[in-house]
Amino acid sequence: MSGLAPDDQNRLTVPLNLRPSQVAASKCAEMATQVLFTLRNLTPTLESVELQGAGGDRLCELTEERAESAAWHGASKPPEYLYFLDGKHRAVRMQAGSTGTGSVPLPGPLGEGGKKLQSVAVSRDEHTAAGVGDEGRSLYVTPLASGGSFGAPPVTSAGPTPAERLTTPSWDARGDLWVADRDPHRPGLFVLEQGGTKSEQVAVPDLSGRIEDVRVAADGARIALVVAKDGKQSLFIGRIQRDDGTGQGISVDGLRSAAPDLEQVSAISWAGDSRLLVVGQEQGGVQQMRYVEVDGSTLDGPAPGALTSVKAIAASEDERVPLVAYSEDGIVRLPSGAQWQKVDKDGTAPVYPG
């Protein structure tokens, strides 16, 4: 690759001695992904790669965002378990596709009941768990293995009430852990690389208001934020800009409203690469649940069946896995083509990995 350099659009063109008929589109994208990831460490500003065939024909072009998504899809698998908190505020799990209601404590300290938890999040490989405890003051990260103990919390909040402390955490496909502090005096968004012991504050230059909820997309390129301002809670989508050796730190840029008509967004969950399941209210309206595209458009087709007083929802990028919610009936699930079913009347805070 010597002698090749990105153009002024930060696009690198790589000539190959191949004709378009010799390269399948999926194989071309795979090669472009490898080139982009390999060179990104050397050229952090690189944004896209174009593979050019013999005679100058374009074989394919891949942007950084699509490369992240392609790489994630290559490593993705359906969730094995659904996770939630039981009536004793311990982290428990049950098989994702289960039709039963039995759950078992998580292996490790989060499931042993040593601390009452307010929320839990499990990494996408289902090897590590994060829990918020101490009435929202402390974030704990532990392996999903029996034994072990709580280490020092890598993120703590001094917010005056539980609702003004740490949000539910969220894992991205790289294994980084995200959480926001809702402390009115020192609000902030934080990321822990590989769920480690060191947290880094994330710059959100376009933010106007306080982050109330955080969910990172499976591709690791986008983040959904519920932002409170002037008595409203609105949904925004931003793009994650990685440091990747530039020394700039991680930031969330290009925040844009994704469901402008919803004034009180109370729960969100990614339900695919580019869509979210959102619970919220329009001005003067009743609570509703609907799918929203990242560009803000509402998806055609049926919304999930009505459910009252939804406080949390869990959807998966894998559509075969049932929707799960925390409502006034506790934990409930919606298998495909069925009605909502009760799972655990005392359960709270349901999540799939991520």
TrEMBL record:
UniProt domain Lipoprotein LpqB C-terminal: residue ranges: 98-353
Signal peptide from the UniProt entry: none
Chain ranges passing through the membrane: none
Gene3D superfamilies the UniProt entry points to: TolB, C-terminal domain
Pfam assignment, any one: Gmad1
Protein name: Lipoprotein LpqB C-terminal domain-containing protein
